[in-house]
Amino acid sequence: MPAKSKTASNPNTIHQFTARALNSDDNIDFADFTGKKILVVNVASRCGFTNQYEDLENLYQTYKDKLIVIGFPCNQFLAQESGNEEKIAKFCSLNYGVTFPMCEKVRVKGRDAHDIYKWLTKEELNGQDDFKVTWNFNKFLLDEQGHIIAHYPAKVKPLDEAITEYLN
């Protein structure tokens, strides 16, 4: 069962952030997604859950009028994303036809975590709850205003009703 957030009391949202796009100098501005739900996922190319890329792409294609999926490659879990950004982009495109936005390779936990993940995981920053990223393919679902709706562990698949109930 996913950990659901408490009522938001912090005026800050994920829309305050940008992240560098994978294999590019361009930035992804999360404010551009105001009015859409956002699914943020830490991903890896050599993980038992890597096949979730296919379902993430299907979810994105099915609901792209109201949902944006954003992948963050991460190498913090048993070095399962050790490739450089060019290799990651090629892997995702060739093996899974990924068209949803992918961000630069980041850290998702610890002192050097990307600012988005610091915000996602700390109640003092997100105003909702503390969450832990425990493995690759953890998912955060955010509402149209950029507040956390729910956090899902890796075993919850992208097309699971626990996620799609918020999209139907």
Could you characterize the architecture of this molecule?
This protein has helices at 52-63, 85-96, 115-121, 123-126, 161-164, and strands spanning 3-4, 18-20, 27-29, 37-43, 67-73, 139-142, 148-152. With 168 residues, it is an alpha+beta fold. The strands form 2 sheets. Strands 1-7-6-4-5 form a 5-stranded mixed beta sheet, with helices on one face. A hairpin with a 6-residue loop joins strand 2 (18-20) and strand 3 (27-29). The protein is globular and about 35 Å long. Residues 1-10 have low confidence and may be disordered.
Distance between the termini: 19 Å
Largest sheet: 5 strands, mixed
| Level-2 CATH architecture | 3-Layer(aba) Sandwich
Helical amount among residues, as a percent range?
A: 10-25%
The whole-number mean of residue pLDDT values reads: 92
Quickly give the structural class. alpha+beta
Give the total of beta strands: 7
Under the CATH scheme, which class?
Alpha Beta
Instruction: Provide the spatial order of strands within the biggest beta sheet.
Output: 1-7-6-4-5
Number of domains: 1
Spell out the CATH superfamily: Glutaredoxin
SSE ordering: EEEEHEHHHEEH
Beta-strand content bin? 15-25%
CATH topology: Glutaredoxin
SS element count, helices: 5
Oligomer kind:
single chain
What is the 3D form? globular
Uncertain stretches: 1-10
